[in-house]
């Protein structure tokens, strides 16, 4: 099967040809910048304690809470913080603030809370 032709990296003044949007060097820079600015609490999610508790919580709560309210049976994939913790570790580790959601419901909830793509308070018109 033929492949798409490679195109120039989207980073300003970079002549490298790539199959994606950025060349490897600039993709790393973009990813680091995104993680630093858009995911400031990622260090909490990257702990073995969180991974163990998340796994245990999903075993105990296998169905999506939001879908269950609508009468739909869907497997839960994400442990969601009901009230956003925003870096507050007490709230982050509080199991009474957790709910099991499917990815679709979690993405909808997060987009609603954060505003569109993390741009809270911004008004869009089409």
From TrEMBL:
This is Putative HNH nuclease YajD. Belongs to the HNH nuclease family. GO terms for cellular component: cytosol. The keyword Nuclease applies. Residues 52-107 form the HNH nuclease domain. The keyword Cell wall biogenesis/degradation does not apply. One of its GO terms (molecular function) is nucleic acid binding. It comes from Clostridium homopropionicum DSM 5847. Keywords: Endonuclease, Hydrolase, Nuclease. InterPro entries: HNH (IPR002711), HNH_nuc (IPR003615).
């Amino acid at each position: 099967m033929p492949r798409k032709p490679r195109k120039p990296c989207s980073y300003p003044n970079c002549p490298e040809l790539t199959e994606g949007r950025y060349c490897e060097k600039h993709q790393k820079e973009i990813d680091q910048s995104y993680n630093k600015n858009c995911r400031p609490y990622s260090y909490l999610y990257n702990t073995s304690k969180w991974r163990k508790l998340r796994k245990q919580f999903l075993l105990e709560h296998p169905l999506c809470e939001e879908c269950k309210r609508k009468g739909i049976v869907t497997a839960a994939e994400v442990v969601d913080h009901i009230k956003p913790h925003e870096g507050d570790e007490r709230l982050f580790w509080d199991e009474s603030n957790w709910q099991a959601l499917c990815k679709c419901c979690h993405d909808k909830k997060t987009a609603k809370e954060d505003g569109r793509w993390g741009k809270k308070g911004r008004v869009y018109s089409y």
